[in-house]
Amino acid sequence: MSPQTANRGLRRGGGGNPLVYAVALIVVAATVGPVLYAVLGGFRSNAQLASEPVGLPDPWIFENYAGIFNSPTFWQLTLNSAIIAIITTVIVVIFGVMAAYPLARYRFAGRDQLYLVFVLGLLFPLTVAIVPLFLMVRDLSMTNTWWGVALPQAAFALPMTIVILRPFLRALPKELEEAAQIDGASRIGFFWRILIPLSGPGMVTVGVLAFVASWNAYLLPLLILRGSMRTLPLGVADFSSQYASDTAGVLAFTTVAMIPALVFFLAMERRIVSGLQGAVKG
């Protein structure tokens, strides 16, 4: 059998390059390994971690997780993170689709230059502008408030949102808009009644990305928030500093802090993929 025949047979059989599978397994192990270690470590005692760092729990200890779920501080931190993430997501989705709509559907002077401004916004991470941003939030008397964190986060998420939504909205058939105009719909009517429902996958995509980024944000909440207004990532850092010797407790707290964003992302995974595919096709 010739090598060409063998390769054709391998392709027909659904096989693949073993090297690709090996690299994929290494990447999966490097990605999932730390998460599994943290999850299982929360079910172990500090003595178990010291005697056998990579072993399974024996016996299983549930007090670490129970102590976290029974802590009012944990729920206050979770509430703050959830409210800030929801505010950020709502602002990003509403203003993102409103800004992307004219950039995608209408021709006007300076349209490409305006879009270039949003694209350039991708080059400026939040850390570059953190000091003047903090001074601005302080001058507006918004320190230690949910809005003081949510508004800057939404502003820095808008460039990515518009870059994703613009090709998605542009791909919608022009005939739909023409048919709506024939039926008497205005541009605003077409936007609310037809374009918004058809843009669901793209809006879900940018919404999930904004929610997860806000949930995991650390630097801006660290500068803006104090006391009971602090978020869950700050709570993880505080817990790690306060109970540095309680390794099992720190692993349990870190695991619980990851769950909401992880579950939300996995639940929306298919919609994210479909939204990004629509943006690429556009």
Structure description:
The structure is a single chain. The protein is mainly α and 282 residues long. The protein folds into 2 domains: 18-60, no CATH class; 78-279, MetI-like (MetI-like fold), CATH 1.10.3720. 76% of the residues lie in helices and 0% in strands. It has 15 helices and no strands. Helix 8 packs antiparallel against helix 11 and helix 13 (232-242) packs antiparallel against helix 14. The protein is globular. The two termini are 45 Å apart. The model has no long low-confidence stretch (mean pLDDT 84).
List keywords for this structure.
282 residues; mainly alpha; MetI-like fold; 2 domains; 15 helices
Q: Could you give the topology of this structure?
A:
Elements: H1 3-12, H2 18-41, H3 46-51, H4 63-69, H5 72-105, H6 111-121, H7 130-139, H8 146-170, H9 174-182, H10 187-198, H11 200-215, H12 219-224, H13 232-242, H14 247-267, H15 269-281
Helix pairs in contact: 2-14, 5-8, 5-11, 5-13, 6-8, 8-11, 8-15, 11-14, 11-15, 13-14
